[in-house]
Amino acid sequence: MNKFFDTKLKKIIFIIIVVAVIEFSGRGIFVSLIRFLNSVN
After folding, report:
1. Which residues are CB-contacts of 22 (< 8 A; sequence separation ≥ 6)?
2. How would you class 31 by CB atoms within 10 Å of its CB: exposed for 0-12, middle for 13-18, buried for 19 or more?
3. pLDDT beyond 80 at 17
4. CB within 8 A of 9, min separation 6: which ones?
């Protein structure tokens, strides 16, 4: 049971890191949304 949580936690951390890298590179959905909202104003 402990191994299951260990591998699941590693997957979640990996996904969070990948999403964070994409966001900080300026190609993420949140960055695009903020740019869109700024261009509307």
Report:
1. 28
2. middle
3. yes
4. none
